[in-house]
Amino acid sequence: MSLPKQTNDQALMKALSEGQELAMEQIFRMYYVGICQASYRILPDPAVAEDLAQDVLLELWRRRDELRITGSISAYLRRAVVNRTLNYIRDQRLNLMDGEDALQETEGEEAVASVLLESKELQEKIDEAIENLPDRCRLVFVLSRFEDLSYAEIGEKLDISVKTVENQISKALKILRISLAPFVDKNLGIAFFLFFILLG
Length: 200
Description:
By secondary structure, the chain is mainly α. The chain has two domains: 1-96, Rna Polymerase Sigma Factor, Chain: A (Orthogonal Bundle); 116-200, Winged helix-like DNA-binding domain superfamily/Winged helix DNA-binding domain (Arc Repressor Mutant, subunit A, Orthogonal Bundle). Helix content is 78%, strand content 0%. The protein has nine helices and no strands. It has helices spanning 9-17, 21-42, 46-62, 73-96, 102-131, 135-145, 151-158, 162-186, 190-199.
């Protein structure tokens, strides 16, 4: 049985949960390149990015019976590969500490913990800033960034023009950049990359 070309996420996940390999193949074709790019933005190593993207897709297949994705598949996969990339960076840093004395190891662990804490704090700031956007502005932004709808699709869904969608996205980005700039300026590194993954 073949799946329609424009299968929506809900139908695609249903087919995946039923073990249809064709659904997994379609997900791979649609999202593999995008999640590779998401990983590469954080850690610019193409081989590692490809490995981590493949790991995320393999995990999706392994957990197909239990996963309940409420948003878009694309948003879920991007978040998954970002988390996996951050974990990879943490593990690599811990591995580099092998052979060093106890003091150096402790300092290294504290540095890694600090980076991960900064990332978590930034995500909380991002969530708070998005929540504080004007209602229409927030809805358009969420549909664009988290549901992966095109401007035309958003316009059709909300019965507004594409130009209005563009203006609302521009307004949202301006507000968010102003809201988050002080925090990001103070917390570079991974936090910087997470900021531009969301707002870029």
